[in-house]
Amino acid sequence: GWGVAKIPRALDVARKLGLDLPRAHMCCLVLDETTRSVTVAPSRDPAAAVNLEYLALAYRVRRLEGREPVFSLDPLECPAAASPEERKLGWQVKRFEPEWLAGTSVGEVMFQADYHLKELSMGDCEQPVVGMLSCFDYTEAEGHKEEWTAREWFVVRQAEIQMTEEGLLVPRVRMGVEAREQVQGADGLEDAPLTRPDHPLVKYAEAFSRYFDVIAERRSSVFHLRELAKAAALAKFLVEADVFVGDLWLDAAPEGGAERGCREIPQLWNERCRAQIEVSDGRIADWDAGLSTRLRGVYGGVQMGMDRFPMQEVVVAA
Questions:
Q1: Quick one: pLDDT at residue 281?
Q2: How far apart are CA 107 and CA 116, in angstroms?
Q3: How far apart are the first and last CA of the chain?
Q4: Is the CB of residue 174 less than 8 Å from the CB of residue 157?
């Protein structure tokens, strides 16, 4: 699971970059518009702060791959005729793009945030905001009886880079969650052509998006996913605006370790049973006739969609 030990330390990357930063400070980037270069500086402003390891990895992905980090948690192949019991025993596989993100801090935070989102969606954990319902609470409240499979994923809905008078680069991102029902296709599960707006997972995604910033302050993995999104926005700006940062950044973050091989994890399911009983002459009649089981699964990942936002120019901070 997610814990403090998994949070990357800025000082480790700073040493590889030849920087001597105060321990008690956060880090930010300062742009010199004359030389079109950036320097790392200490900061006490959380809005301008950036995790250097997330930034180094996001910059490497953007420079070498021309994209942002992507993660998905997908089902392994399972026969279409498999029983609910067989489907429950299925496994999921972690997929990273690019693959070398497996075992890195960026790969880990995407997986942990996505998996925790699935746990919350299914009601396996206490909701982070009072009054929030899981998608299965929505299902029961609305009387939906059918089985379904769907996916939900983290997205960035707005992103820009602001700059203060002192040249501090401030990444601004607004994140949310989207959901889509899935159906069995010729090549396995695929998105349904149309997902009804009152689908339980769609309603949960809307609620999570509405409270995203509140949830990020209460759930560390979601907070650090937002920090990664800020770093990805900065990395995109550095590349698209042709800002010089030096090749040291390409090797500043540690490579993925032994966890590269741990790609398969048990399937996360939520199964709920209902029963209606009839009492006749003091005895329960046909006790098993009204017993019904509904099996529902949730998949997803992290697909920020950062390429929708042009980053060649900075916005002057108000």
A1: 63
A2: 14
A3: 40
A4: yes
Q: What is the dihedral of CA 300, 306, 309, 311, to 10 degrees?
A: 170
Task: With both helix axes pointing from N to C terminus, report the angle between 52-65 and 105-122 in degrees, rounded to the nearest 10.
Answer: 100
Instruction: Say what the pLDDT of residue 293 is.
Output: 46
pLDDT digits (tens, 9 = 90+) for 210-233: 999 999 999 999 999 999 999 999
pLDDT given for residue 278 in this prediction: 57
If we measure between CA atoms, which residue out of 151, 188, 119, 184 comes closest to residue 303? 151
Quick one: pLDDT at residue 196? 83
pTM summary value:
0.85
With a CB cutoff of 8 Å and minimum separation 6, the contacts of 228 are 51, 54, 58, 69, 106, 109, 110
Q: Which residue type is seen at 314?
A: V
Q: What pLDDT does residue 210 have?
A: 97
The amino acid present at 264, given as its one-letter code, is: E
Choose among 56, 54, 68, 101: nearest CA to 224.
54
The low-confidence residues of the chain, meaning pLDDT below 50, are: 273, 275, 287, 290-293
107 CB neighbour count, 10 Å cutoff: 23
Q: Are 235 and 58 within 8 A, CB to CB?
A: yes
**How many Cα atoms are found within 13 Å in the side-chain-facing hemisphere of 107?**
24
What pLDDT sits at residue 291?
A: 44
